[in-house]
């Protein structure tokens, strides 16, 4: 890939431009290039869901999609329509080494990038329970996830924290205390392990 603007890149050239990282180059620069290629690619995809799906099927690059190809095509078609009118951008997220965001960064991302606020789920939606692993045992978070999901809760992995002597369930406001007590029971904890504080995001 030659240096310069307004170039048309072939598939292999685009992949190289998006993924190559020179020795000593900050990861943020490589990720910015990746975002540029994503935006340019979306601008080339059809806004018609059926046509976008045909493109995905023709490429044969998505071997095990998390979405069926039809749904993925529809999603990409919507993104393509936004990209073509300039209503699409990528942003670097300040993730930690384990891939999660701190509480402060989570609120910043929701406010500054997504244009909203962290708020309670809608009525009828599963209660979200954020878990921060402070045991030093990798398997502890997975065990908590299984218990919470089996109890009907939505598990949110909030990463790791410094080692703590005991587990605690935190709730933000008085009306959430009863829910926090139920979460504690699900995790095999007592009501004494429930405290008011700032929960993990």
TrEMBL record:
Please list the residue ranges annotated as the LytR/CpsA/Psr regulator C-terminal domain. 127-191
Q: Which Gene3D superfamilies match?
A: 3.30.70.2390
Q: Name one Pfam family in it.
A: LytR_C
InterPro entries assigned: LytR/CpsA/Psr_C, LytR/CpsA/Psr_CW_biosynth
Q: What is the name attached to this protein's record? A: LytR C-terminal domain-containing protein
**Source organism phylogeny:** Bacteria, Bacillati, Actinomycetota, Actinomycetes, Kitasatosporales
């Amino acid at each position: 890939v030659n240096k310069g603007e307004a170039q048309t890149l072939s598939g292999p050239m685009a992949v190289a431009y998006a993924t190559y990282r020179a020795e000593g180059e900050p990861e943020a620069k490589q990720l910015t290039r990746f975002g540029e290629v994503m935006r340019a690619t979306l601008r080339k995809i059809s806004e018609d869901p059926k046509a976008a799906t045909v493109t995905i099927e023709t490429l044969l690059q998505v071997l095990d999609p998390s979405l069926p190809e039809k749904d993925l095509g529809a999603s990409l078609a919507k993104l393509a329509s936004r990209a073509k009118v300039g209503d699409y951008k990528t942003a670097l997220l300040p993730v930690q080494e384990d891939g999660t965001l701190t509480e402060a960064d989570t609120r910043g991302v929701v406010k500054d990038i997504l244009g909203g606020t962290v708020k309670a789920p809608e009525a009828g939606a599963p209660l979200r329970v954020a878990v921060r692993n402070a045991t030093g045992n990798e398997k502890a978070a997975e065990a908590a996830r299984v218990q919470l999901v089996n109890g009907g809760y939505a598990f949110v992995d909030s990463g790791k924290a410094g080692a703590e002597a005991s587990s605690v369930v935190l709730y933000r406001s008085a009306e959430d205390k009863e829910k926090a007590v139920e979460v504690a029971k699900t995790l095999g904890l007592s009501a004494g392990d429930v405290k008011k504080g700032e929960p993990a995001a």
